[in-house]
Amino acid sequence: MNTEQNKVAIVTGGGSGLGLAIAKKFTENGIITVIVGRDEQKLKTAKEQLGELCETIQCDLSDLPAIPKLVQDVVERFGKIDILVNNAGINLKKEFTEVTDEEFLRILHTNVCSVFAISREAVKHMKEAGSGSIINISSMAAQYGLPKVIAYSASKTAIDGMTRAMAVELSPFGIRTNAIAPGFIYSDMTATALNSDPERKAKVFSRTPMGKMGQPEDVGEAAYYLATDASKYVTGVVLPVDGGNSIGF
């Protein structure tokens, strides 16, 4: 595998869902894509689908001390990191007063601390190269108030703030940092959830001007745009991919 011609990307949580859709778009366009996840079987299945430009690394990103070695391994294998997509994250749906300190911290640890740690390590190499693109995955939970996801909302709002701070600090080194805020994107899980709750389904579609759910590929296309020179003058943005949901009334 000759990495000179190919860009090299890390996609966390790349074994399924939005991460897999992003990895698919990348590999289809000649980007060597290292997908990181906890579930070895998911990673193996994803690699079979994505082909020879996909590599896998099994790692639990909540284990912060393991992150520097993960990044170093990628650099040793491929010589560089051009793109980092911070997609891995966890959620917790629970009444505000029922959320324990431990649960709140667990969400922040995975969704914020691990994003910081892997970005910090990748940036060390991007600075040397004088270029790089970091893409964080935000959420509608950072755009407006959603009930029963207090820790997740806090974590994704932190991601938006980090995106802007990183964009300003890292721009002089040729590193761009942006985020994507997906709206209601189709998956078996979201479809099942909405079909079992007609009231919520009606609410979702009534406030989404386009009147339909997005597809994982829509997020893949946005990530590809932000990862490549097509967006070379774009940094510090949080791009909603939501059919207008965040501005819908």
Provide the structure class. alpha/beta
How are strands sequenced across the largest beta sheet? 3-2-1-4-5-6-7
* Overall helicity: 40-55%
Domain unit count:
1
Keywords: Oxidoreductase
InterPro entries: NAD(P)-bd_dom_sf, Sc_DH/Rdtase_CS, SDR_fam
Family: Belongs to the short-chain dehydrogenases/reductases (SDR) family.
GO molecular function: oxidoreductase activity, acting on the CH-OH group of donors, NAD or NADP as acceptor
What does this structure look like?
There is one protein chain. The chain is an alpha/beta fold. The chain has a single domain, classed as NAD(P)-binding Rossmann-like Domain (Rossmann fold). The protein contains 8 helices and 7 strands. Strands 3-2-1-4-5-6-7 form a 7-stranded parallel sheet, sandwiched between helices. Helix 2 (40-50) links the parallel strand 2 (32-37) and strand 3. Helix 1 packs across helix 8, helix 3 (67-78) packs parallel to helix 4 (101-129) and helix 4 (101-129) packs parallel to helix 5 (150-170). The longest helix is centred in the middle third of the chain and has 29 residues, at 101-129. GO terms for molecular function: oxidoreductase activity, acting on the CH-OH group of donors, NAD or NADP as acceptor. Belongs to the short-chain dehydrogenases/reductases (SDR) family. It holds the Pfam family adh_short_C2. Keywords: Oxidoreductase.
List keywords for this structure.
alpha/beta, 8 helices, 7 strands, globular
